[in-house]
Every structure is written in structure tokens, then in C-alpha cells.
Amino acid sequence: MKIGITGNKSKPHVREAIHRFMNYAGKQGISLIVDEALIEFLGVDSKQVSLPLQSLGQESDLLVAFGGDGTLLTTASRVASSGVPILGVNLGGLGFLAEVPLQEMEETINDLCVGDYAVLERMMLMIQLQSKQKNNQPIVYALNDVVIDKGISPRLISVDIRVDDIYLNTYRCDGIIVATPTGSTAYSLSAGGPLLMPTMKAMLVTPICPHSLTVRPIVFSDESHLQVRLVRCDHPAQINIDGKNLFIMHPDETLRIAKAPHTIHWVATKKRDFFTLLRSKLNWGTDLLSLQKPKTLSGC
Description:
This protein is an alpha/beta fold. It has eight helices and 17 strands. The protein has two domains: about 1-115 and about 270-290, Rossmann fold; about 125-260, Probable inorganic polyphosphate/atp-NAD kinase, domain 2 (Tumour Suppressor Smad4, Sandwich). The strands form two sheets. Strands 1, 2, 3, 4, 5, 6, 7, 9, 10, 14 and 17 form an eleven-stranded mixed beta sheet that branches. It is globular.
């Protein structure tokens, strides 16, 4: 087995975690290919095989990313088309995507060696900003979501959405989130959107602070094509894809969103399922009141 390794250099203890993984994996006879951007940072032997991240997916049987959910999103966007399965080791906070904690790393390597894991497919979004006045922006891909928001302006924006060329609604709001099922546990959840099973094939539209009590999130088939435009706006909006600000959108432009032609292949350990993850990350079933320490009155 050949395993590619990438990671977020800004995460605490990432150097020690990667060295620990490499040492144990090497003892199990696993061939390792390291993201060349990490070679100097890790201080590994010059004989260590390394490749650019974009090429790791094509040369590896499996790719391990060390960091948080943001690291996984960045990795997925750059290697998804290769079809390589991705496993995340969590060095961040919440860790909805990077599910393997450090204390389970060696056990997980053993599972990888004997094939005791599952590979799940997760859909991605394909996004392009089109303009009649200038060249279209390049197509980009999102694993979590694309967000159209008002940016630094204090004023609301009006967003017109059409689905398969059929008018849906004009939203007066701070912004709109178009999320995948994977992204339903991210920004969309904070904005009041529903949770979707991550292996579903669907697109979720969640308005951000809409100026209407009747506006609610809505779920579409993965075969739908969305067209998003600004209307009645005298200022541009910004477009953020998987948490990164990529474009400025003007009223004469159209943002087209559809299912990507490729999927992400996700390595899932058999130690936890989606519902276990929800309970642990969102504290479902926990009596929070019982965890609070009783207050002590002074003088008593």
C-alpha cells in the first residue's frame, strides 16, 4: 500500500503527529509519499519520496491529511478528480470531517493495512461565475458550500434564484448558502438549515438572516442546476467557496451551481457512524445542566 501524506503546517503538534504516523506506518511496510510542501518543514531524509499535492492523489492508494476540517476541504478540492480515498487525522477543533483523533492513529494504521475501513462517496458542487461583459471565471469545486453574501457592506442584498431555469424566489437577506449534504453540518447548520446524511445526493439552499419570517431552507435534487443573480443591488456581493473568498459578484453576473462530475472518496473508520459523530460533536443526549457545578454562596 502507498499512502500520501499532507497536512496543515500551522496546526500545533502537526510535525510530531506526522513523524509518529510515518514511523509506525513504515514499520508496517507501508510506502509513503509526502507532500513536497512539507519536506523542509518536517526535516525528513532527502531520500523520502515527495510530490506536489495535486499529484499525490494519482500516485497514492490513499491520502492522509493532518489538520482540521479546513485542511480536509483544501485537500479535497485539489485531489478530488483523482478519486483517491481521503482520511483525516483531527488536529483541529470540532472535526466533523477529520474524524480520526491522535490517540487512535496507530490503531487506524493497523485497520488500513488489513482493509478494515469503508470508502464512502460524497458529492461536490461545481461553480462558475459568468458575465456578459467579460470573460467567465474558471470553474471551481466545493465539498461543503458556496456562500453569496453582502461582504463588507452594511446593507442587505437581493438574490434571485432560478432552478433549472424556473424562478424560485428573490431573497432579501445577508446572503445565501448553497451546501452539499457534507456541508449541511457547517455554515448552513449555523444559519438554521437541516442536517442531511452526508452520502445523500442533494443540494441545500439556506438563506442567511432573511428579511421575511416565511423564508425557509429548501432541499433540491442533485440533478438541479441553480442560477443565482443579484437584483436591485447597487453594490457587489462576495462569493466564498469552502470558507475561502474567491470572487466578487456584480449585478450583471450569474453564478451557476450544479453537481460536480466527480465525487470525493472518503475513508470512514468503523469505530463511529454519522449519528455517533452528531451525538459527540453536538452533545446530543447530554444533560448539560447536570454537568454544571453548583454555585456556592459566600458565607455558607
